[in-house]
Design a protein that fits this description.
Oligomer: homotrimer
Strand content of chain A: 25-35%
Number of strands of chain A: 15
Low-confidence stretches of chain A: none
Number of helices of chain A: 5
Strand order of the largest sheet of chain A: 2-1-3-5-4-6-7
Radius of gyration of chain A: 21 Å
Structural class of chain A: alpha+beta
Largest interface: A-B, 35 and 42 residues
Largest sheet of chain A: 7 strands, mixed
Shape of chain A: elongated
Helix content of chain A: 10-25%
Mean pLDDT of chain A: 94
Distance between the termini of chain A: 50 Å
Chain lengths: ~270, ~270, ~270
Amino acid sequence: MAMAIVTLTTDFGTRDGYAGAVKGVLLSLEPGIDIVDLSHEIPPGDVAAGAWCLRVAAPEFPAGAVHLAVVDPGVGSSRHAVILEAGAHLYLGPDNGLLSLVPDPLRAFAIDASRVVRDGRLAPTFHGRDLFAPAAARLASGEDPASLGTQIEPGDLVALPVDAGWSEQGGEAVGCVVHVDRFGNLVTSLPAALLARACAAGGSAGGRPVLGPVASYEGIAQGGAAFIEGSQGLVEISVRGASASSLLGLGVGSEVRLSLSQGEEA
Amino acid sequence: MAMAIVTLTTDFGTRDGYAGAVKGVLLSLEPGIDIVDLSHEIPPGDVAAGAWCLRVAAPEFPAGAVHLAVVDPGVGSSRHAVILEAGAHLYLGPDNGLLSLVPDPLRAFAIDASRVVRDGRLAPTFHGRDLFAPAAARLASGEDPASLGTQIEPGDLVALPVDAGWSEQGGEAVGCVVHVDRFGNLVTSLPAALLARACAAGGSAGGRPVLGPVASYEGIAQGGAAFIEGSQGLVEISVRGASASSLLGLGVGSEVRLSLSQGEEA
Amino acid sequence: MAMAIVTLTTDFGTRDGYAGAVKGVLLSLEPGIDIVDLSHEIPPGDVAAGAWCLRVAAPEFPAGAVHLAVVDPGVGSSRHAVILEAGAHLYLGPDNGLLSLVPDPLRAFAIDASRVVRDGRLAPTFHGRDLFAPAAARLASGEDPASLGTQIEPGDLVALPVDAGWSEQGGEAVGCVVHVDRFGNLVTSLPAALLARACAAGGSAGGRPVLGPVASYEGIAQGGAAFIEGSQGLVEISVRGASASSLLGLGVGSEVRLSLSQGEEA
């Protein structure tokens, strides 16, 4: 039988032992668990980056997976610690936007610390170890989230301030950059389906020209940036063998414009 | 049944394949093992940082865990390779201070290379692969440490040169910074219990003022550094949303002074 | 019974969720799998570095291990995705040199995407998730590589452009630096067996003097660089407690000359 899976997404790094301590608590409480590192290299305090990592990786896991996420600059404050049931998965994290990109939210619970803390240990600076890990271990053992806290409305969870929408304006699809990856690819808020309607002329990002859509990185002219279908169902802007972010000098929030072919508008 | 756990703490990084080679040897010798990465990002040769990572993470693991630690600038020299039994755990590493913060040492053994090396392979630059990994695999299989080497006195193991003590001097608790974490928090040698006796006035670190104790990061005045109860049973100095180490210009070894309330002195 | 092992070697980093997505797909398709991270920190697009990591780590694993490697700047182009059977292991990766250092190649196959892609998902920028992970899961389940593609000649796989050879010229063994590790050690193309014939005088690297062979780092004179037997069966050049690469200003491709004792020439 497959083991229960608990994935970890944190901004802890590994060298201070914090990520290791969380693993130790999980394995102490639920020895048969399969711990899977998604990342401990979320930039410190960067809630949006943590939310993106979860969005990309977590839904790929099998039903029943428990996803523990801690990017928590407000640790120890009055922010809620929450469990979000979404699709066939369970997510745990601080209620600060970290879970706001999780698809298909169904039920949410505010964790009651008194029900999960062990031996009274709840350091005001390390809820990952003292609150979230014990709660995740119990969810991984099959316990119902309702037994760990109070049900709340998923719609009341904190949302990220980022505007990830897009609109059609005068023959252009207008959105923004929502993530810059390790390779410097600019992930935009534009749905990839728009590429079927895109002009060969391309468009722009932050006022800089972007070439028309290509089928693969190989098709991008040397020195240029082009639109391409990304892996997240969104349009991306890439450069061949280099960073589009560096070449164009753009980052999260930059405006992106994709020219649409007139004939194909619905 | 839960699998035997072997945790890894090294300064190998991952890109050179050294950490992967250690994992391969472990799984070749003891296929049912659960390998858990604590860190491979200890700064190269930084024994004190490796010892700290072990101190924070290893004791959280369930009884029977084997902790393999390799930060070993003296690899191939006459320094001992040792096994330390402590609490209900087993630790392996070079005798250079790396195991000196392990709590509750019980028995220690100098590993006899001839009893663990396989096929005569013992590269003078990679005892992690050729000596420590085979020894760890055998401990994980349940073998007694006494069968791998010669018993020595735990008290004879090399200690770190860091002075991690503290004292009370004229109404102040005086200690030092013992670790700076990824977030720039300054972990001090002062026991957290002292905070119950602290003055609201705070104290100082490296001669710079530090505000009185707060209950959580949220309570730290913008732009200031404050004392706070850390997760390791020690007083820490933190800044809200930024690095206390950078703001104060301090690091390991800096003197820390916490003013104590006179009325409550024992 | 031991679980099937799938190791991962990528240039994905972890923070973007790409490595996590690959793990999710693997566990969704083959729940009982043991996923082992070799590295996700291969420098972006650095095929030679990825090949080196595989060479160091992969052969240490037990028979039957599946090694999934993705450093793939040509993703989405016409480059083949391949399976290489070598020794008792299976390797998967793009045919761009990444598998060119794998020892003992036996059979190779060009993966037929139509046989492994699930639900038609094949993003032109993420074959790790959509092509390689599903293929690796099926190999881990025991499926024959021949069922996933077309057999090709192992000798036809793309080789790295690096010249990793060496020759004997006028009493010297002449090779080059093939890898620089995290510690700044210069791994050369010279077989370690040559050290038995080396002069005490040493030799040179990039025209800079290198001291004669030492038995361990401890034996290297302060401030100097020396030849030493490395862990990969090759001569290395190291400095004690510092980076030989930085001290000598050398990197991959630099010429290395080791003076041989005349008396012992065959």
